[in-house]
Amino acid sequence: MENQEIFDHHPGKWFAIRVKPQAERVVATIARYKGFEEFLPLYKARRRWSDRFQWVDLPLFPGYLFCRLKNEESRLPILTIPGVLHFVGIGKIPVPIDDREVAAIQAAIQSGLSAEPWPFLDVGQKVRIEEGPLTGTEGILVEIRRKQRIVVSVSLLSRSIAVEIERHWARPLYAGRSKRMVQTNSLLSGATCA
Description:
There is one protein chain. 24% of the residues lie in helices and 36% in strands. The protein is α+β, with helices and mostly antiparallel strands. It folds into 2 domains: 2-94, 2-Layer Sandwich (Alpha-Beta Plaits), CATH 3.30.70; 99-188, SH3 type barrels, CATH 2.30.30. The chain has a 6-stranded antiparallel β-sheet with strand order 9-13-12-11-10-14, covered by helices on one side. Strands 2-5-1-6 form a 4-stranded antiparallel β-sheet. A hairpin with a 4-residue loop joins strand 12 (147-154) and strand 13. The model is unreliable at 4-10 and 177-194 (pLDDT under 50).
């Protein structure tokens, strides 16, 4: 009965699905074939083989993909796909992912800007992008190799991605506490996050 309450309050919500290693594409294809809206964010990475380098598309969230479900009964066709381990949640109850987090990841992918997996950063210095293709996206600003990036996170998975941005696109988000404002300002002034 508890499961049904989650779906009753969140029709058409995004859920994270844990899959076997390197099964993300197969599971995404089968889910799409079964009529589900799936989202498997990919990024380009340069990989070395013994005789050459090659660019390959890899999952931004290895071992996970996202799927929009309309009700509890939608879970069974997904769970029967070879390679699916389980829905991410609390115990056996799947927990929906905040639509804004999925929308931020989709905007990052559709922007065409360079993106890569990033270690999850807990509550920290947040910024809002006010210019460029990611306008309206909120995330954490970091600096890597003298280039600014916004880190967008999926809290439920404790995973993040970093997307390269122009420094002037970002504006600080002020939380109610002055400590947070000081942290945000120091980050924007060029401090490096690990």
